[in-house]
Amino acid sequence: LGANRVPADATRKIAWSGKPELNSLPEKTFRVASFNIHGGKGTDRRLDLKRIADCLADVEPQFVGLNEVHGSQFGTRLNQAEELGQHLKMASLFVPTERRFWQPSFGNGLLTHVSTTSVHRLPLPCTQGKKYRTATLTSFQVDGQKVRVLSVHLDRMKDREVQLERVFSLFCDLEKPAILMGDLNTFPNDPLLAKWLKDSDIRDAVHEGLGEADPPRRIDWIFTRGLQTIKGGCVGNEASDHPLVWAELRIPEPVESPR
Fold it and tell me: How far apart are CA 126 and CA 177, in angstroms?
């Protein structure tokens, strides 16, 4: 029975490891990244979290959302979010979505240089009896203004459609500025995605940064509302089976009302 995958207890307390160095990012411009780390296993099938950390260090993000993060195994090692946090000197949080052998075993993670508010775990619909998914909502201060962040990893099978609807509905209800990022298992030409991007204030930050160089079959995303995109990237690597996506964003200057 212990080997069965069951949903993590969303009411169980989770705690940050390490303390962020900043209470608020002092400049209006900041950088975020999202990375499905594939449990630290690279395209060569070798597990090496140092390679994951090096990829993240190269883009210098202040806040990171992680997918496919493994928990500690019978107390023999740290969870992978905490290991990466130690490599990068960032505060870390493991957000489990599944339990095996009576302990949190798999899920998502956050890394940050800046203090966050409370973290809310929002279980997403699951009809398969496995592959449990959770959206993670938190916020941090940029130049004294609150930025809300929703980090997700969606199913690639039959639950994807309802999960995508739930996540975008939540994202559009958040007060701006807001960020949605993660592995959506959704290609750019998907009609489900186009419906949300049409006639809305949602911006695809990675595409705005890359333009025609944006990979046509990318499934990892950073969407924004109420933020300007300065730069964006999609970094192929051997450390994972997913690219690392990142965006440099800016709090826009307030628009003065005409006199």
Answer: 29
When pLDDT is cut at 50, 70 and 90, the band that residue 128 belongs to is: confident
Contact 9, 99 (CB under 8 A): yes
Q: Which domains does the chain have, with CATH numbers?
A: 25-250 (3.60.10.10)
pTM: predicted TM-score of the whole model, two decimal places: 0.93
C-beta of residue 100 within 8 angstroms of C-beta of residue 74 = no
The CA distance from 137 to 118, in Å, is 8
* Rounded Cα–Cα distance for residues 160 and 13 (Å): 27
Exposure of 129 by Cβ count < 10 A (0-12 exposed, 13-18 middle, 19+ buried)?
Answer: exposed
For 50-96, write each residue's pLDDT tens digit: 999 999 999 999 999 999 999 876 556 789 999 999 999 999 999 99
**Distance separating alpha carbons of residues 233 and 214, to the nearest angstrom:** 8
